[in-house]
Amino acid sequence: MIVELRKLLLRDIASVQRELELYPDDAAVWRAAPGILNTSGTLALHLAGNLQHFIGAILGGTGYLRQRDLEFSRRDVPRAELLAGLDRAAEAVGGTLGALPAARLDELYPLELAGVRLTTRMFLLHLSTHLAFHLGQIGYHRRVVTGDTTSSGASGIAILAD
User: Fold this and answer.
1) 14 located within any domain
2) Cross-strand pairs, 108
């Protein structure tokens, strides 16, 4: 299960990066659109911080210190910086889940969240669907603000084989 979750998370982080690379310029990543609360830039910051915190720091002991309020308040961060943050998230996910013993999946996740305790397995599944949800939002944001319908191949299945 850890191997599969690691593959899904890494695939979807790479897909977020491909979506960001398809924008014509850095400004478009931050362009607001009617009815869309968070831009792709905000979502990229949020995903990078979320994964580095909940997987890297909490499960992997990386020492990452999350500043969640900045994930939602920073603006006009260059794509290069967003991509670098996602690279660090991928490193945290890959390294942590690559070393996590399978027995940890059935243990309680170390943090209580929203007043509940989940197993590590369930929380990792939650993080995977959270990432996929925001990946879809980023794809739609890009299409809305640019008019470009190019596919990023976000949910490619071939990478999951082997």
Assistant:
1) yes
2) 119
Structurally, how many domains does the chain consist of? 1
Q: With bands split at pLDDT 50, 70 and 90, how would you rate the model's confidence at 160?
A: confident
Rounded to whole angstroms, how far apart are CA atoms 108 and 150?
41
Q: Which residue, chain included where needed, has tokens 């794809």?
A: 139
- C-beta separation of 66 from 48 below 8 A: no
Report the distance separating Cα 63 and Cα 86, nearest Å. 17
pTM beyond 0.85: yes
pLDDT of residue 53: 98
Per-residue b or e along 28-65, where b marks 16 or more CB atoms closer than 10 Å to that residue's CB: bbbbeeeeeebbbbbbbbbbbbbbbbbbbbbbbebebe
Eight-class DSSP state of 148:
-
Any domain includes 161: no
